Amino acid sequence: MLSGIITTFLLLLFIALWIWAWQPRLRKSFDATARLAVDDDVPAGEEITGNDRRKNA
Fold this sequence. Notes:
Number of strands: 2
Strand order of the largest sheet: 1-2
Structural class: mainly alpha
Pfam families: FixQ
Strand content: 5-15%
Protein name: Cbb3-type cytochrome oxidase component
Distance between the termini: 56 Å
Organism: uncultured Stenotrophomonas sp
Number of helices: 2
Radius of gyration: 20 Å
Largest sheet: 2 strands, antiparallel
Order of helices and strands: HHEE
């Protein structure tokens, strides 16, 4: 009985999160986040520190 309630709750939570993630108003934010991995603003071998100065790694 308890496992059925927990399973149902988790399924409803998953569906709610899925609906939230696919909201059109969040698309711009998610697209910007997805592009972070391929953003070429910082050349290879350099990193940005907290004060935006670059140094060799």
